Queue: 3 jobs
Job 1
Amino acid sequence: MSINQLIFRNLKKNLKNYYLYVFALMFTVALYFAFVTLQYDPSMDATKGSIKGAAAIRTASVLLIVIVTVFLLYANNIFIKRRSKEIGLLQLIGMTKGKIFRILTAENFIIYFSSLFIGVFIGFSSSKLFIMILFKITGVNAIATLTFSPNALIQTVIVFSAIYLCIMLLNYVFIKKQNILSLFKVASTTEVKKVSLLEMIIGILGIFFIIIGYYISSKLFGGDFTTMNELFLAMIFILGSVIIGTYLFYKGSVSFIFYLIRKKKDGYLNIHEVLSLSSIMFRMKSNALLLTIITTVSALAIGLLSLSYISYYSSEKSAENYVAADFALTNAEDAKHFKEALHAHHIPYSEKMIDVIHANINMKKILDTKLKELKVDPASMTLPIISDDDVEKINLSPDETLFAGYNDMMQKFMPLKSSGQIELKGRHEVIPQKYLGLQKEYYISYFFTSGGLPVAIVDEAIFDRLQKDMDMKPSVHIGIDIQDEAKIQEADEIFQKTTFSGNHDSRLAMSSNQKRSMGLSMFIVGFLGLTFLITSGCILYFKQMDESEDEKLNYTILRKLGFTQGDLLKGVQAKQAFNFGIPLIIGLFHSYFAVQSGWFLFGTELWTPMILVMLLYTALYSIFGFLSVLYYKKVIKAAL
Amino acid sequence: MYILEATKIYKSYGNKFNKQEVLKGLDIRVEKGEFVSIMGASGSGKTTLLNVLSSIDQVSQGTIKIEGKDIISMKEKQLAEFRKRHLGFIFQEYNLLDTLTVKENVLLPLSITKTAKKDAEQKFNELATELGIYEIKDKYPNEISGGQKQRTSAARAFIHEPSIIFADEPTGALDSKSASDLLNKLQKLNQKRKATIVMVTHDPVAASFSSRVIFIKDGQIYTQLIKGEETRQTFFQHIMKTQGVLGGVQNEH
């Protein structure tokens, strides 16, 4: 048999064994190529919008390369180890290491580059789909065209060739380092050790670290960290403590807990426990690092996806908070023009005017500033003030003040007490008031509230008194609501065409603007998240393929002893539920606490978007669990 | 009453055009409490015979009954069930699970029969003491010697008191001291517990521990020797002589 024949035979055999590797390779290439195509596509300019958008895409593509490289190197590592026997055999019959390396290189070259080109093809065909999704979520009305970008192709080929060189380099090192004997031995290393006291301590320490991390994350914006520096340090600490805790948890706690269960059984294990409990324990130590990485990556992906989805999901809601009507104006002249235009187009509307004055308020008794660096003087804060006559359903007595519409994020940094005494400071007089609490509704637009401060509602009499004392004309909030929702779009077009002299904004324009920028980041994060998901799923699957190969002999023994395939499969299912489930569950917890600590910086809705993201991630991730159970089924069937 | 009754069993591999007959109409009967050895040259079909008798492999033709039950007509699941409850195995390569301790390995067959934990404990203690593996019960297979592994494997075969125990070259991977040690233990268990043992071996010393030796050649029974009242030493001489004839090598004296 000539060398060429050998290479082709190996190829045929490998393709069958490593179909998922080939699949994963094609998929990552496709994802990368599609992404780069988007980057170069001229029709993308509409969504990129700004330099920031373009930079985000470029950063994401670098991150994508990193993930893909790590993934491919890891996968290759598993596969070359599996072939160590074959390599040893070739060496035994007198082939030089150089020649073996050349064979491997040739084999890999064929698999790798054919997958690369198939991947490019898939990526090209799917890039239209991606661009359509992107347009859909950013709300850009453009027709997705399919243009083949030679730049994208060149970039993809360069990147993946570089990765190929890395893989070959590692293979070269692997072959160079081995001698015939050690090549035959690779598979038979065992790692059984008794559980020691040290391990118990490590395990408990791990859980402790995770809990501390969670605890601090829940306190992050609670006011204990008062400078940006402290906040930053706290975040680093949380990250470190949770990641180290996770590692120690896998390294110590899992084997320790299993050890206790086993100890309790006192040697009397049933078949399911044999295949799940003891098998997991057997490999826990070498798996700890891998599981930690997978957990961290999953947590990162879920966290980022949740946060970006939260901001996308809340864009309408936050536009409502910023703009207190469909269209908000501050100039009566402007409003007149706009209303005439609406009339001309037969669009029915309602109008609401609210007088607003700005006054300094002494809020010392009800406000804590948490962040020293915010430089706010609680004794004299300028807030907008409106009268209770302008607000439906609210009627206050002259000594009462109600606050409304305080931005969630500002609230975290400057929380208000639920009640207390405040003072309204006019030019000459100071009016003491009783603060009643905070309402969620937003009555006036962001032009008046400096972006997020609450508005103070006072009794009509007080309002007049204050206004006289201040001796200035109140500014006015004019809110125009379109009665027929279907016509808002049309009204918005008129609004955009009209020229105004004062402050003005349209809620629709604001929300679609928000959607555009959030949509792009969500798309990028989604893309990365998908890659994270697929690579981590594949890595776990490969690992399981590897383990099943090692355990094949056990299945043979057990089946000879009279255990049915069904018995074995149930044990394997439990093992897979653990192998895939534990990193997922811990990852979900991590991301939950991460999102919980800072979600208000991103939007106004927490639960719906977060749970949706988590469910979707879990569903996609479980596919890999099912695939590995199917693989085990095949191995068990072939075992006898 | 025979515990194992195989009549006219044929086994062939390959397809219509390239057929390799391994077993050609073999008859074997084993009585309860017997310790039978099956000997023969390499390729004579010993291991195939053991595999079909123990239901791991299927015959092409013929009937096999264990305790009066026909195992040929059984389905895959029934066979597995039958193996679990009625058969015990000792293999040349020990076939212990690396992930389990000695004790866990031995108790594995009991987990199916839903034996109470206390009974299981008692059974293990007795058997482990008899086989001399009680001290190493919490060790893992890669921490103990070959002889200890094989005795663990034997304990696993005996623990659930099967009707019949099949041993495939149990001493194949052991040095002579550990081998005779194991065989002594097997013989003792055979006598004390009235356990039926069918052992395949090519080692005359191992065979001399049994009560009857069946020689097979080219897929058929060549002859058999019964120990009767002979000492192990003279029985060994007889086995050697027969093996010589069987191998076509004449003794020189």
Job 2
Amino acid sequence: MKEHSVEIVVNGERHHLTVGSEMTLLEVLRDRLGLKGVKEGCSKGECGACTVLVDGRPVNSCLLLAVEADGKEIITIEGVERDGQLNPIQEEFIEHGAVQCGFCTPGMIISAKYLIENNPDPSEEEIREAISGNLCRCTGYVRIISAIKSAVDKYSMR
Amino acid sequence: MQEILRKKKTEYRYVGKPVRRVDGYKKVTGRAVYTVDVDLPGMLHGKILRSPHPHAIIKSIDTSKAERLPGVKAIITGKDTEGVRFGFVETPHMPADMPPLAEDRVRYVGEAVAAVAATSEKVAVKAINLIEVEYEPLKAVFHPEEAMKPEAPAIHDVIYPSGRSFWQEWGVERDSTPQKVERNIASTLKLEIGDVEEGFGNADHVKEGRFETNVTAHGALEPHGAVARYSEGRLDVWLSHMGPYMKRYWLARTMGLPESHVRVRPAFVGGAFGGKIDLFDYEYIASHLSRLTGRPVKIVLTRREVFQATRLRHPMIFYIKTGVKKDGRITAMDIKAIDDTGAYRGTGPVVVYLAHAFSIPIYRIPNLRYTGYAVYTNNPVRVAMRGHGAPQARFAVEQQIDEIAEEAGLDPYEIRMINARERGDVLPNGDVLNSCGLKEALTRAVEDGKFLQKYGKHRGKGRGVGIGLTSMFSGAQFYPFGATGVVLLHDDGGATVFTGAIEFGQGSDTMMCQIVAEELGIDMERVSILSGDSELCPIALDNWLSGGTFVNGRAVQLAAIDARNKLFEYAAELLGVSRDELQAEDNVIYSADNPSKRIPHEKVVKYAIHRNRGQQIVGVGHATPVEGAYWYPSLTTGKGRFTGAYSFSATFAEVEVDFETGVVKVVRIINAHDCGYPINPVLVEGQAEGQGYMGMGQVLFEEVIEEKGTILNPNFLDYLMPTSIDVPEMKTIHIETHDPNGPFGGKEVGEGVIAGVVSAIANAIYDATGVRFRKLPILPSDILDALEGRE
């Protein structure tokens, strides 16, 4: 198998890695960089648990080859908290009871972050749409939606 | 109980409040460690070769090519595990029937045939593909009613005991006997209460029908997985599961180890919903491979394997006959239930019992006959899934109640109010309804949804409303038959709770911390918890038994009270007052008679430790589901006490049906739920909403499609679960009934609601279309077919 050298910036930190051509970004993040907050639920881009931001856009990291991530900037759930301060989305997820088992939560928060930072005033339909690729089997989504609505208000106050 | 009632307050500080969950921070920051995240030094990766045949003889297995592959450390087949058996059900007459690896025969697609441990997952996958298995396919059967015919192929012949049954281990001294399986019937439950024929004779209206429910998947986001580390005769395991004690019992027995040498370690669990109870092949295989190689072994299943080779919801067929008087009183009901339990027994005998046991607390039925069969087929194995028999039974019964009400000229609300049970009712098995908010829940749901104003108004015109009732147990007499809780007080006045109860998303840890902070009168931030560690925690009911609050929560509450009582002894000494006048609040212990006499917890604990030379204050509490009952009810007669408290709920559902496309849109779900007392309303509502969502999925989308035992949609793209776009408006109404035996009056909430949701939506679809659908799921194509008069 051919080895490639890639350079990626993950949560602000630059990494030079040698990766196989079949290796996914998810494998790099979890197995090479130890970022276990990025979850693997289906390995096929169906559940959204492995969602990360790649150059600012939400991506199922199980579907992206590591070589395709070369030169890109990646934000995972581990990079959402800043200086020990939770992001408003994280705060509101706890506050609203939007977390149960928590397995979908990292990917869900990343999708919400992309939405809010690109659409400061989303409608409920837009919120539902934004997380429609992130499956949650516990909550029935209602509290996730209300948490994101609250986070939108908090963002606008920042 | 007097001890519990001693602390009388009108307002609690933590209990009854929407307190933030204690594991929230870890979960929103990606710090929560799940089993799939556990990596150990020197760890190997395991993969399992699974059968492509639903029923076949294994003629030979050649592992030689795989053995030569660099990186392969061990390969095992059924020969290495011969005679090892496990199973969710094991009674003296129903020996455990499942091998971790098939020996001479495979009985379902996905059955484990061989397993490999290798230095990487990739090598392990390569290795299993190099294993050559020669099969001789056998005739297979996939429908339970076909399987019951005399000419059907026999899936099991005689099932021999693999040792003392667990009932013997736990004190029922009855020898195990081999089970001769006739007509593929894994178990039969027969019971009759009153005189059913006479009951039908007295009825003015009689209705009969056949109902059929679907195979659904739990869909927990974390795939099933295990990490096992065997060393020096001891086994450490990290599992994605629902309770350490069943797992420990079966791992100890199958591995030939004493219980104390098996440690189920705590790990966060990414959803379970009933689907992670059983011991699984891969859990045993990882342990066995670790013993063989001397290295830790990790196995994580692929999503396809989770569907095909773990467990699914039982599909059931019901033949139901109901008789009512003109005034709506039910005179008799006759139910025959047939469960397709799959190739191994799974929870078949239990679901057949539970479909009855979760129904009996709802209506007063003077004459009842119930006959249930769990039937082997060559389908994948079934286990509990949220409600375990209740959604299946309610789908059937609640629809038939609506049908017969219509015939008798009554509305669905009326007929339910006439027949619904009340507090004080004693069930045929002796269970007592010490709390029962069923009628109040029904009335509140009906009023809130404006059911009576809407019902029948748009019959057959695309908009409809429906209601459904349900009940659920709060822990049963199954191993370990109760719970012990421990609360340890630290020098600074803080506390640690120890409980074997496992947190799998429902909020068990948070509820426990709330209870302890409340009882001790300290800040919740001062309470930490260690849960779900089979070695460091005292025993508790595994949380699939729905006794998380009622039993495990109460054990912890009593432990906190015990610790408080001890604390008060010392405080009384220090303050020079009587113990009985003390109260604890805001980290201070004070005299209720003279509040100026006060002392912080911290000082009292320090004093207690110093005075007693290191004797720390440890509170211990114990609770059991049913006082005075020792065993689970009989799975063949249904006799015996079952639980100490039932919770109840009524669901209102409103739907719109598009007659062009057949698509059903659920507009609103209202769950009025009696969990006794919501110790944490947000957690309780979260459970109700999750079940609203899941119940809606079961009616409208979800169906595991099995084609000759092979699942055609073993992934989230083809197995449709509702998404954020599909979920309707949901509301939870709390019905507080304060069960006298629950902690702060609390009882079950995690799995009953779904059954009401399923039946309410089904009834609403009838109201909207004028057509009764008796088979789940109700797909757009079914609706179009029915509206166009097609079969």
Job 3
Amino acid sequence: MTIQNMFGWRPLLVLSVFWMSIAGVRADAPAPTLEQRVAGLEAYLGNGDPTAALKDAKGNIPDGLTTASVGVAGPGHNGWMMTSAALVLFMTLPGLALFYGGLVRSKNVLSILAQCLGITGLVTLLWWAVGYSLVFDDSFKSPILGGLGFAFFKGVTSAPNTNYAYWVSQNVFSMYQMMFAIITPALIIGAIAERIKFSALLLFVGAWMFIVYFPLAHMVWGVNGLMNGVWNAGAAIKAIDFAGGTVVHMSSGWSALILCMILGKRLGFGKEPMPPHSMVLCMVGTGMLWVGWYGFNAGSAVAADGVAANAFMTTTLATGVAAFVWAVAEYFDKGKASVLGFCSGAVAGLVVVTPATGFIDASGSIIIGVAAGLVPWFFCTRVKRWFGYDDALDTFGVHAVGGTLGAFLTGILATADVNANLNTNLKEIVGKTLVAEQCKAIAVTLVLSIVGTTVIAFVIKALMGLRPAAEAEREGLDVSDHEEKGYIY
Amino acid sequence: MALKKIEAIIKPFKLEEVKEALTEAGIEGMTATEVKGFGRQKGHTEIYRGSEYTVDFLPKVKLEIVLPEASVQKAITAILKAAKTGKIGDGKIFVLPLDEVIRIRTEDKGEKAV
């Protein structure tokens, strides 16, 4: 068997592309000047377009003209994005799993871990098959849904997809974005913890990805998306969402509220105590979420550039302040600052700063931190009691309320001083009417999440039921759904 | 001579002191169990994100001692001396009659087996 038979046409193609990019010329192609080659390299430093210097006055690149900088990933940007992707996965496994797992009763700890693992596997499969393509392709020419051009990762290689990043391999970009698609449905399980069948949850998440997540992510981040104000000049709603305040936190949080109301309260809710079984695990998980969130927020620059650096700083400031403010609020309310208060405040700070992180300065992040410490605290400790819904681990109070608050505040606090990309398509509205666009994006997200979740939940309820038998719920989902126990003494 | 069993419910942090006092009084064996319970002492409140729980059952240690009737008084004196803080929640001592004691290894019975 020859090498060529084993690998088909690829070695030839790879070799020829390699030769073209190294040499920068074909036999009949024009050679780049030294200035053009240096400009290509300089574009790497500023996360710019390496082909900019090759374009003529009309913006066209002469046939065959290229440099070694074109069509390849930049090592620094690529390295940061691989790190960021791993950090965002770390937020779910095991960060969120431990944060939520510690908050449930010990008979249900494994059900939380299993749900996080199950969602990771299911979403990975969906993402590879069509999810990535439905979000980040543009072949449908639709502001609502991407296309099928990248289905089964066709054409998703180490070369950058310059619609999204000049210097990051598309395979890395797709994995980075997949980690967001994993953690978003995993956030939902907090509201419905301790009382949903494992099979019903997986079916719900599978449907929810198609009806809510893939369209919403395309609308906000797709190159031709409905609400992608930063990059889509033709966006109908000129909103901004740096790392997923609407896509991730609002969508999961509001869906969680609806699902928890359709599901009903846990057996014994309000009558028997349901305290966290391990605040230690909860705090460990919180720390992992916070660390992982640097990949989530600073990584959303899709480059290791100045925008990422600013996001790193604002994420830290907002989170530190929010953790402290939540605990201070508790102190003035009940006389004690609690570990769960610090943890909840930290997560709330991370949530609220998410849509804003790459668009605000240090002062803006402090304002966000204070708001994140007070508003979600008020919802978790007061509003929940007034209405009586059983949002078991406060997914609604933290993620829906925090995500909505963040999307709104982003409209007020965003400034082009820290992110010049706001000057590209939004120069006229930043600092003026941007907040109105943010409210429109909030409305679209709310309607899609609430309607989508309602329909899916009632269909699954009719098909197979959502809740385990009362006996199984009393015994605990670890034994009834997974036939194992978290702790054997 | 008749055998008695003492069951003493004490504060967990007093276990070491009580054990030492009993040993000094010549008591050679005892069994300790972690238990939960309440009497006149109130429990405490726990708050998790605004949800308040009253915890009535407090952690205590139950000591079980089997001994001849003649030793009961000095054992009670030792426990009282070591376990008393003077605050509510110090616990209780129960003295019960006992029908029989058998040492499994030797099959000794009665006082010999204690």
